[in-house]
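Target chain:
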Amino acid sequence: MNGTSDGGLAVPMAWLYAEYIADELLRTGRLIPVSTLEFRAGRDTLALTIYLSDAAGELSGIRVVSQLDEWMSLTAYGHPWRDWVHTRFLALGEEALERGGGPGIGSGPGSGEEPAEDPDLELARAAWRWLDHTELFATNLDPGRHGHADTPPGLDENARVWTPAWQLGLPLGHLAMHLF
């Protein structure tokens, strides 16, 4: 829920809370330095997972521990996370349209005004754009997928490839939740 005061600026509380939870999970796991792009990839991936899985819009501190299993399932290896993100964004976009808001919908014929999009959704979409359009030079976590199928089993930490940020963020977030 967004905090507003008499038509004032809407505060994206749901997104900020999801980002806070993701940040705490990653910091507690101590997997990667906080100042790195890899940390941002993990935090944004986890925050997006947390935010988009909160279908009822009632994310609360009490439910965080009970949600870990769902979030781990969503970030597990082999889960079609990217497709799930697109599906959730589509569903949230339709919900915004039903409430009379959302991008591109004017507040009246000829008014020239468009209602502001949900600030939580705006931040989630910005995080997704960064995750999907940013590539990081990282250890090849899936040698078969990058044309290195002839490498022996096991992870070669010297084999590095350009990887979409979300693909690096998923295993970081998943492992951070296991360590929590």
